[in-house]
Amino acid sequence: MSGISLTFGGDPVFSGLDLVVQPGDRVALVGRNGSGKSTLMKVMAGLVEADQGDIIIPPGKSVGYMEQDPGMQGYATLGDYASSGLEPGELYKVERAGEGLKFDPDRAVETASGGERRRAALAKLMAEAPDLMLLDEPTNHLDIEAIAWLERELGSTRAAFVLISHDRAFLRALTRATLWIDRGVVRRHEQGFEAFETWRDKVWEEEDQQRHKLNRLIKSEARWAVEGISARRKRNQGRVRALQALRAEKTAQIKRQGSAAMALESGPKSGRKVIEAKGVCKTFGSQQIVRTFDLLVQRGDRVAFVGPNGVGKTTLLKMLLGQVDPDEGSVMLGTNLEVAVFDQARAQLDPEMSLWDSLTGDPEMRVSGKADQVMVGGQPKHVVGYLKEFLFDDAQARAAVKSLSGGEKARLLLAKLMAKSSNLLVLDEPTNDLDIETLDLLQELLDDYDGTVLLVSHDRDFLDRVATTTIAMEGNGRATVYAGGWSDYISQRGDVAQKNEEKTKSSRPKIKHEAKQKAGLSFSEKHRLEKLPAEIARLEAEIAKLEALMSDPELFSREPVKFQKATEALVERQEKLSSAEEEWLMLEEKAEAG
User: Fold this and answer.
1) Please, are residues 13 and 36 in contact by the beta-carbon 8 Å criterion?
2) φ and ψ of 32, to 5 deg
3) d(CA 573, CA 123)
4) Hey, which bits of 81-235 come out as E strands?
């Protein structure tokens, strides 16, 4: 991409953007909600045309994009859509991806949910296997098992990919470089997401230092202007103009968007015992949700529910809240409970309503006689002011809910949720679509919340940060209670799930390779295992040098032969690195088995 400029609604999204994505790149694309991540990806995919600039794709290279809302007109089933464009001999790739991503290819398009459509679009992209995959929030609507499958697939692919995701664990496992969009500027860092926050904070610290220096210089020049300009008017017009230029520079600086000013309104304390379930059994049709399930939830607990999609997590939640009766057993609710619910379907939001009406029309937030105010924590606030606390601007206040991005809808729902007092908070998939900074803030709020939290999520990092108890629902009525978050559950379970998790982690591109002398290896295999870490380190260093060379956006047009040779060398070394890492993993597993 060279000289890319794009304007929406009078405001430039990008200006003079130069960007190179190299063969085999594994790139995290990060930035706040509304910063332009999805727009940039659509420009890369050719779905949005830039106002200026060029996009060059070398001959013979293909680019594929996972659509957020795929158009499936003309297709009877999800499988028909996912396999369109493939040769008959390649249809098995769709079946394989369908198994890993858990979508039914025979599902009629007209009855498929948004999540099922997105999984079909992802399966289609994985089966097509383009040279560059553009993935916008691919883990949304996937359960943890499907996320682990996708992580392994992307970890072993030789294709390049650019990845937008709120899932920290997913980004850390897969990425080797980071693109950061911040106030219309796109920066590239030659390290994966693991290093992003340290890099971001350093950039912001340097920016603050420059702003401080500029402010001091303006004050100094302004003092000179006030004290002596009249006596030196003719000789110092250049200095006056310089002062005007400094002020213009300060005006042109774009202020960083702050964090949403979220605060959970804690209600009166509940009783010590919040929920007690004894011997609970529940069956829907032929599916057993739980059998002889016992649980005690006490005030202040953070209880997470994990398991495959469709296993019955939401049903169990509703039973624990007294909304669905068990077939057997009992559920007792504690005293003085005030419940607030964040639902994954965003059903509390009317897509045709404006943001203004969505808040002022809520009976629990309405202020009598005041059409422009909402009740927040028992105090009236102007609706626009409250929306600004959640990073919405004046123009959005009268916009329809349906015009919002997924992350913005989640923020609006949080604005409704947090205005009301509660002591039992139910969060059903709250992390979908939220940017990473807002997820950080939500986690901090939950840490400080005085009440009790019931949480359904597929975000492993978020579960580790928040949950004190994890209920693993594994199908056939099995629901087991574990202490701690996701990692604690995996370590305590210690069976197939742990092996799958370790296999997923082994696909990470940066790996700490330690040769171990263990039984089970022949002499030559032990020798090879000792040599592999140094070979891998050498390949990684060569790849880093080639990536640094090719990060020059002018290289392709200035020295096309050199660019082509560097490209071929990069692909060759990445293939060797992948092969060496697979060999190292095989030998390590063999040594462990021995």
Assistant:
1) yes
2) -65, 160
3) 28
4) 132-136, 160-164, 177-182, 185-189
CATH code, residues 2-198 = 3.40.50.300
As a CATH number, domain 523-593 is 1.10.287
Output the six-digit token pair for 271: 């009783």
Q: Give the list of residues 6+ apart from residue 72 with CB closer than 8 angstroms, or none.
A: 78, 81, 109, 112, 117, 120
Q: Give the amino acid at 238.
A: G
Q: How big is the chain by its Cα radius of gyration, in Å? A: 27
Q: How far apart are CA 390 and CA 33, in angstroms?
A: 11
Strands 328-333 and 273-284, sheet pairing: antiparallel
Dihedrals phi, psi of 590, to nearest 5 degrees? -65, -40
The first and second tokens of residue 268, run together, are 């009166």
CA distances from 43 to 48, 152, 428 (A): 5, 28, 33
Provide the CATH number for the domain formed by 273-493 in this structure: 3.40.50.300
Query: What is the C-alpha to C-alpha distance for residues 368 and 358, in angstroms, rounded to an integer?
Result: 16
Euclidean distance between CA atoms 559 and 570, whole angstroms: 16
| pLDDT digit string, tens, across residues 343-387 | 765 667 888 999 999 888 888 788 877 888 888 877 888 989 888
What are the CA-CA distances from residue 59 to residues 95, 134, 469 (Å)? 30, 18, 53
pLDDT digits (tens, 9 = 90+) for 381-426: 898 988 888 878 888 888 898 888 777 887 888 888 888 888 899 9
The helix (H) or strand (E) run that includes residue 284 is strand 273-284
- Express each pLDDT in 14-52 by its tens digit: 888 999 999 999 999 998 877 788 889 999 999 999 999
- In one-letter notation, the amino acid at residue 91 is L
| Residue-wise pLDDT tens digits, 422-435 | 889 998 888 777 77
Cα–Cα dist 557/340, whole Å: 58
Closest CA to 344 of 414, 454, 426, 428: 428
444 vs 7, 40, 90, 236, CA distance in Å? Answer: 35, 30, 47, 54
Dihedral, 340, 343, 347, 352 alpha carbons, nearest 10: 90
Q: Which residues contact 429 (CB under 8 A, 6 or more apart)?
A: 344, 456, 457, 458
Partnered with residue 389 across adjacent β-strands are none
Long-range CB contact pairs, 380-386, < 8 A, 24+: 383/356, 383/359, 384/356, 386/359, 386/415, 386/419
pLDDT per residue as tens digits for the range 238-260: 555 665 665 565 555 555 555 55
SS3 442: helix
